[in-house]
Amino acid sequence: MDRPDQEGSRYSWFFRIFGKPKQNTSPSAPVPTKPQKNVEKPIERTIAGNFKTTFSRNNRTMLEQLNESRRYHDIIKDVARRYNIKPSVICGIGSRESHWGLALRPEGPTGRGDFSRRRPRGERRGVEPPDGGGYGRGLMQIDYDWHEFARTGKWYEPRENLIYSCVVLDRARKFFDKKAQSLNKEQKLRAMIAAYNGGATATLRSIKAGSDIDARTTGHDYSKDVLNRSGWFQLHGWE
Known about the structure:
The protein is mostly helical. Helix content is 42%, strand content 4%. The protein has helices spanning 12-15, 60-69, 73-83, 87-98, 148-152, 158-179, 185-198, 200-208, 222-235; strands at residues 4-5, 20-21, 112-113, 136-137, 142-143. It has a three-stranded antiparallel sheet. The protein starts with a strand and ends with a helix.
């Protein structure tokens, strides 16, 4: 989950959670990378409830993440049911954000990511969080600067981290239900996912400009990549 830029408006309460994506910075530690893909023949599935994937079924990197995700099986199923978000989508986001903890330091739900150095903001006077490096917190990488939960909440507990991430997704979905009613089901799903990374208002701006939904996300591919990963998790039993 990347840092959105602040922008004042009558929806300022929402902008504290959503907004423009952060400017690119050079991290001082390795960040999650995409697993190697099988370029021979993609496994095609319809977008309505199942997703296509270009990852090989036996992709070793993804299999490692699958094993990690299974540690949180009951939690994922519970929060997915509570917020009406497909478990495979949650799995895809966790894969993209932290490789389900394998890309964090230290590895696991108590780990951190995004070791960039940022300009001081608010009560944070240094270039790093006062409690140590790493702006991304936990499995779903909740951003320290833009989410009170990442500063004072139990982000290091898998259940709390996953619940909060689904709250963010649910708010984004409701935002687009109200502000972008012309989007079809696939586009709304992608917009919700893109907003998790780049911010709801920034994503809406891209949509209104006729740009790709991922235009303002990290790598300009966030929702596409998440759903690609989600499709792979579906091949391994995640709905």
